[in-house]
Design goal:
Strand content: 35-45%
Strand order of the largest sheet: 1-2-25-24-23
Number of strands: 25
Mean pLDDT: 96
Order of helices and strands: EEEEEEEEEEEEEEEEEEEEEEEEHE
Shape: globular
Largest sheet: 5 strands, antiparallel
CATH superfamily: TolB, C-terminal domain
CATH topology: Neuraminidase
Radius of gyration: 18 Å
Length: 315
């Protein structure tokens, strides 16, 4: 009998072996994942094939992005027009691609970070999103800043907000960003265990607390899907701290959560969720930085599972 995870309208089964690769190609690990309007799945990796493309069933279609990125690719977002935004905190850029692999734009001075905590773009940016109503680009910046930056769709700088701290409108680590159809901007503030909501100018609206190290986030229909990272140093192996998926309505009410208390590579288990996507059927794809969190510390180091699919089950 198949095992089903979740509750009510949000019930899922693990898809064994989704995303098998051709001989000689490996993920290493997957910091991001996104799905286009045709249910093609784009997986961001830290291997030699930075952006891999699969069909919905998990058949490998090819890759692109070689020579464009460092080994610290970080966030992947797909916009309403199917363009892809890729954050690379190793070279301090946000790059925009078409789904055929053509680079369309690059924001940031490659390999020239701004002053750490200085507030100027960019110092290790984490993610970017596009506002559908006007095409503006919102960037979470990230590891060396506690800041949100806004650009026009043509790449002209507009304004920024945020500073280090725990008050409303401040961030410890803005790790992911999304924009809904009402122009509300959602920012994952990972180390504060919360998601903050803003208007397009950066005015604070509200915050949702008690979300364990939210790392990944995607809007789909009238819900937000969140991947939660494991515990921090000293409690990083504690059961029940993160390594799970949570689903919220747009008022911040949790409607579903799944993920075993113990981390792992089995069905229903996660190690380090870092990217999340949902296709037109409601199936969930979870990308993980399992090598960074666990695999590189093993003796000898080894690659761990870093992409998985959960198929939505009809009630």
């Amino acid at each position: 009998m198949r095992e089903v995870y979740g509750v009510g309208d949000f019930r899922y089964e693990y898809v064994e072996g989704w995303g098998k690769l051709p001989e000689g190609i490996r993920y290493l690990e997957c910091p991001g994942v996104a799905v286009d309007g045709q249910d093609n799945v784009y997986v961001l990796t830290r291997g030699d094939h930075p952006i891999m493309v699969f069909d919905r069933e998990g058949s490998y279609q090819g890759s692109f992005g070689q020579t464009y990125f460092s080994d610290r690719t970080h966030g992947l977002y797909i916009a309403h027009d199917n363009s892809l935004l890729v954050a690379d905190d190793g070279i301090h850029t946000i790059q925009k691609f078409s789904t055929d692999g053509t680079q369309m734009m690059e924001l940031g001075a490659r390999n020239q970070p701004s002053e750490r905590w200085g507030g100027e773009p960019f110092n290790r940016p984490t993610s970017a999103a596009i506002m559908p109503s006007n095409g503006d680009i919102y960037v979470s910046d990230g590891y060396g800043n506690s800041r949100i930056h806004v650009y026009t769709g043509t790449g002209e700088y507009k304004h920024s907000w945020g500073s280090p701290g725990i008050d409303a409108g401040q961030f410890i680590r803005p790790h992911n960003i999304a924009v809904d159809d009402n122009d509300t901007v959602y920012v994952v503030d990972r180390e504060c265990h919360r998601i903050q909501l803003f208007d397009p100018q950066g005015n604070f609206i509200t915050m949702w607390n008690n979300i364990h190290r939210p790392d990944a986030m995607v809007l789909w229909q009238d819900h937000i899907y969140v991947g939660e990272l494991n515990g921090m140093g000293g409690v990083d192996d504690a059961p029940g701290l993160g390594h799970r998926v949570s689903i919220y309505d747009l008022k911040g009410n949790m409607v579903c959560r799944f993920g075993a208390a113990e981390e792992g590579e089995g069905p229903g288990q996660f190690i380090a969720p870092h990217g999340i996507a949902v296709d037109s059927h409601g199936d969930i794809y979870v990308a993980e930085v399992s090598y960074t969190i666990r695999g590189r510390h093993m003796d000898p180091p080894r690659e761990l599972r870093s992409i998985s699919k959960y198929r939505r089950v009809s009630s």
